[in-house]
Write a structure and sequence with these properties.
- The protein contains 5 helices and 8 strands; from the N terminus they run βαβββαβαβαββα.
- With 190 residues, the chain is of the alpha+beta class.
- The chain has an 8-stranded antiparallel sheet.
- It starts with a strand and ends in a 9-residue tail after the last helix.
């Protein structure tokens, strides 16, 4: 079962392999095809977290991702375009997995100098596809209010969906993600 994900928007070309030495210090890591990694966190204390309450360990992946959906619509307000994106994916979706994914994303963003693409609107768990204009406006207003209540910088980025509809994703700096991790509504986007 797939879980939540986060994109790391990199200021220069880098690959998942650049994170390998750091990940190997507290994870069991396997190099997948190309420059993708799959790993299990052995020691979550490195990320400031206690051991999970369950015996099994969630698998995570880190690998290249295309920015093409965003390039079609541009990068309003960023000041610079990201050079590349890495996708960080949890293969489980429990509460601990969301928290671990968020902590991994924050640590990797600090190492790479990256922005974090949440892959959707924070505070809203479902697609806005197929909802009425009124429902969409309510969801966007709630999401925007939540994001505005936290420190850091956030951009609401438009992207092109496969069916030609314009979707939105929040992209934020590390200060915002650190605050979001401590928020009562914290959840990464699946």
């Amino acid at each position: 079962m797939g879980g939540p994900a986060a994109g790391l928007w990199l200021p220069r070309e880098q690959s998942a392999l650049d994170a390998l030495p750091w990940l190997e210090s507290f994870c069991e890591v396997r190099i997948e095809s190309g420059d993708s990694l799959e790993f299990h966190v052995r020691d979550p204390a490195v990320l400031g977290l206690p051991r999970p309450r369950r015996d099994r360990s969630c698998a995570f992946s880190l690998g290249p991702e295309s920015l093409e959906d965003y390039r079609e619509l541009g990068f309003p307000g960023l000041g610079r375009w990201p050079a590349a994106e890495l996708c960080l994916l949890a293969h489980c979706s429990g509460k601990d997995d969301h928290l671990l994914l968020g902590r991994l994303a924050l640590s990797l963003a600090e190492r790479f100098g990256a922005l974090i693409d949440f892959g959707g609107l924070l505070g809203y768990r479902y697609s806005l596809y197929g909802v009425t204009d009124e429902e969409r406006a309510v969801c966007l207003a709630r999401s925007r209010g939540l994001v505005a209540s936290l420190p850091g910088r956030v951009w609401e980025m438009p992207y092109a969906t496969g069916d030609g509809v314009c979707g939105y994703s929040h992209v934020a700096d590390r200060e915002f993600l650190a605050a979001w991790l401590d928020h009562r509504e914290f959840r990464m986007i699946k």
